[in-house]
Structures are given as structure tokens and as C-alpha cells.
Design a protein that fits this description.
Blueprint lengths: L7 H15 L8 E15 L2 E8 L8 E4 L3 E8 L7 E4 L25 E7 L5 E7 L9 E7 L13 E10 L4 H11 L8 E4 L16 E4 L4 E8 L5 E6 L4 E6 L2 E8 L1 E4 L4 E7 L7 E10 L11 E7 L12 E3 L9 H8 L20 E13 L13 E7 L2 E3 L7 H7 L31 E3 L2 E4 L3 E9 L8 E5 L4 E8 L18 E2 L1 E4 L3 E9 L3 E7 L2 H6 L2 E6 L20
Parallel strand pairs: 1-4, 3-8, 9-12, 11-19, 18-20, 21-26, 23-24, 25-33
Antiparallel strand pairs: 1-2, 4-6, 5-7, 7-8, 9-10, 12-17, 13-16, 13-18, 14-15, 14-17, 18-19, 21-22, 26-31, 27-30, 27-32, 28-29, 28-31, 32-33
Catalytic activity: 4 hydroquinone + O2 = 4 benzosemiquinone + 2 H2O
Enzyme class: oxidoreductase
GO molecular function, one term: hydroquinone:oxygen oxidoreductase activity
Length: 577
Amino acid sequence: MDSPYFPSFLRVLLFGFWVLALFPEFVVSITRHYTFNVEYLNVTRLCHTRNILSVNGKFPGPRLVAREGDRVVVKVVNHVSNNVTIHWHGIRQLTSGWADGPAYVTQCPIQTNQSYTYNFTIVGQRGTLLWHAHISWLRATIYGPIIILPKHNESYPFQKPYKEIPILFGEWFNVDPEAVISQALQTGGGPNVSDAYTINGLPGPLYNCSSKDTYTLKVKPGKTYLLRLINAALNEELFFSIANHTLIVVEADAKYTKPFETDTLLIAPGQTTNVLLKTKPYFPNASYQMAARPYFTGRGTFDNSTTAGILIYNQPLHQSSLKNLTLLKPTLPPINATNFVANFTGKFRSLANAKFPVNVPQKVDRKFFFTVGLGTNPCPKNTTCQGPSNSTKFAASVNNISFVLPSSVSIMQAYYSGQTNGVFKTDFPATPLNPFNYTGTPPNNTMVTNDTKLVVLKFNTSVEVVLQDTNILGAESHPLHLHGYDFFIVGQGFGNYDPNNDPAKFNLVDPVERNTAGVPAGGWIAIRFKADNPGVWFMHCHLDLHTSWGLRMAWLVLDGAGPNQKLQPPPSDLPKC
């Protein structure tokens, strides 16, 4: 019988605390609830004030913090006139594809004054990812960091940092980016470029009317900082460097890597890189510029400018004022430094140890060869266009198919309900229908086919995809992002992929595992993954201009036999088109 002074529930509670104190590994994962209000926010940059779209009145948006194993529930409420969705970029979304977020692929967008709750569990991932809008170009201002901490009582496989700092690169437009892409799609020409790049929303002192909007990172001497670098820019891969400081890469796309040192990084839109910054052991009589500027190899126009922040050592009170410090500047590679890029990306290797093994598919069930690049569409009758010629519009494609999104239903809803007629086809070609010398002289006919075709994969299929850049309208680097998966980059090279000789050079021991990888300008990469996540998964270039032009496709992975191998039913609040 309970003592009135010590009821049984208190005894159970105390026993629970005692168990947790003695066996901390029993700490279970928790559910973390967030509310994201998509709302207008007045922001002034470069002497231009714009009414931008934001989340919770913050630009960049709020941090989403969780631990590996946690369930995350985010209620997104739309208070603006635009339709909106949010994508949790890099989250595996095992069987929870309804929470992935790409508009018209896994859901219809959230309409004005409507809401949708994204519900997912973080499995086997720790590090840095990002969330962003996934409709049209809204991610220009709707983005923020996802910080996944290791499970309780698990440590980093590198030195514990003194402090962790997210650094988000973005792109600022003085005008509404929606007007920019709308005009470009109408005229068929290249879009007006952005007016600045930003570090944590601030362009920095190298732009007119911007010196007050400079990101400052204050550090202490003799400490190790973890910088969580995120490229949330719309259309540009970026070089990044901090003057007179070496960075140690330890993680990419929420997967640990073998550490390596570098003075300069390349980071593509959608990619994340965690680096250790070891500060100098003394107070230097200098401040240090950190700078980012684009890597660009294409033919079109681009924003050829540099965003800069300042790294400052906290000076003791008796030291001279900051104004007397020398400002040291980093040296960034040339704009088109493709050899540097190939050398840098080649340094990434998975940690591949007993605790963090790599499960690279050694045998492959299905092989695909996809060309990625630009092309053209005909200009509508009796109009003049601003594409490569006045009778054509710019387009982009995978295996010469420029992917058309449906507008009245999402692809996954159509698949799940069995009503796929007129929504999508399942005959996406495994290889180009009209082969040519991909990195040589381009063919005369550059017209693309506009269609909605998917590749269907049986559950647990081992897949290899070779992604080949083409020279049509200029060789260009394409950062390809695959939703719902991390993939292993087993090979890369310049020129045309050679199926007879290149596979012998594949790394099947410790290849890097990513969700976004650059197809080299005038070259190829080979990736492998196991199709163990049922649902419809978008794959697209993460340069939003190319996505808008049609450089996108989707995989349909069928259910497996087991109970945890099936796409969950759609949530009751899934938005309607």
C-alpha cells in the first residue's frame, strides 16, 4: 500500500531518474515542435528596402536544432499571398516523403492562410543541413540552418569545439526575385542577376551603401571553433576563405569526412560543410577578412561580386582600438578555376571507420547514364525571344527531357491514389536517346523534349548513375541534388565518361557520401545509392535558374515487403492544389 508521504508515482519517477543517471544511453529521443510563420518583413540592404518573405520575421530564418534520432514536427503557417512549401534539405525522410516539401512533387503548396505540419524523424544523420522554400525562387529569402547534434553521450570524431557558429551564404536581389524569374521565363532569356552575395544575410563592405551591414565574427585566441557553412545562394557556387587562417574540413552534408586542411573551400548551393577554425594562440595586431565569391564557367551573365565579413580577435581592454588594426584579405581562386575545384572536391573521403562505416553498393542492379545541361525550346509563334537566338528560349534537361511539373496535383499524390493518367509517365530513358560527343562539338539541333517522366525502381535496388555534363550552350558545373537519399560519389573525371576504362578507377572503399554534388564543367561524376526509401524523390540542379528551365527529374521507389519499407499514408492536412 502507498505511504501517504511517498506515493508510488514518485517512487517510479525517482527510480527513472536513478536509471538515467546510471545508464545515460537509455536517454530516448524526443519530439521537437516548431512553428514557422511565413510572413512579410521589411529589409534594407544596399540602400534598397524590400518587403521580403521570411519565417518568423527573421532573415536568414530561425535555426532548427535537433539531435540524431529526434522526431521533428514543424507547423508551417502561410501568411503571405504566395503559395509556399518548405524542404528539409538533406533529411533522409525514411518512409515520410510527404514531409519532403518540393511543390507538385510530394505535395501541393500551402496556400494563403493555410497551414501544413511537416513530421519526420532524423535517422543516422548528424551535422549541418538547411531548410528552404521549394517553389519557384522563394528560397532567395526563405532559408535557415538545420543543426543536428549527436545523440546524448556521443561525441564528435574530432576535437570538441569551444563554440559552434552557423555561416549561411545567400544572394540578395534589390528587386523581387519572383519578378526576375517570371520575366526570364517569359522572354526566354537569361535572368537579371543578383545585386550581392551575403554572409548571414549581410553583404559586407565591398558593396555600395553596405559597410554597416557587415557580418563580424569575434573569436578568442587559442580556441577551436566549428563553423557550419551553408550555401543557400540561388544560382552560384562560391569560393570561401578567411585571410591567414587554415580550415579543417570534418563533415559534408551531415556525414563525417576524413579531416583535411584547406585555405579555400568551394561550396555549391544546397551543400553544407563543417570546418574547424583554430584561432592563433596570441592576440594578433590585425583583423581578418572572410570572403566569398562565385565559381562560374558558363557563358551567361552572373553576379561577379564578393561578399565579405570580418574575423576579429577579442582584444584585452588595454589593447589598441580596432581602428588601428591592419585588415588582411584572403586570396580567392580565379572565377573559372575548374582545376582547383576538381582538386578540392577530390579530397573528400568518408570517415569509414568501425563506428561510422560506409555501405557503398559493391554490385549494381541498375545502371543509368544521364546527360545534364542546357538546350532550347522554340519561341511561341509570332513572338521574338531572347534565348540563344531570337527564335528560341533557354531550356535545360536531363537526357534531353526538360521536366514539366504538374499544376493540379502532386506526383506522389497521383501515384499513391493510383490516378496517374495524364500526370506522369514511367519511361524516363536510362541512357540518352540520341548519343553525341558530349564534351566536343555540340549537335546542331539543341531542342529539348518537354515531358513528365519518372524512373521506377524496385525497393532496395542498387543504383549507379553517371551524370555527364554537355557542351550544349557551354560546359557548366551543375550541382545535382537528390531528395530522400545520400549517395556515394565513386568517381569523377573530365571529358566523356568511358564505360570501359573509368569504372576500374572507382573508389568503393571510402567515397564521400553527399546529397548534393557538382557535375564538373565538361566532365562527369558517378554516384551510387541503394533505393531503400519508398516514395517519389526529386533530383535536380540546385542552381535554381537551371531547375526553372527544366534540369530536373524524379525517381519513383516502390514499397518493400516489410512494415517499415512502405510509404506512410498521406497526413490529413496535406495541402490541396
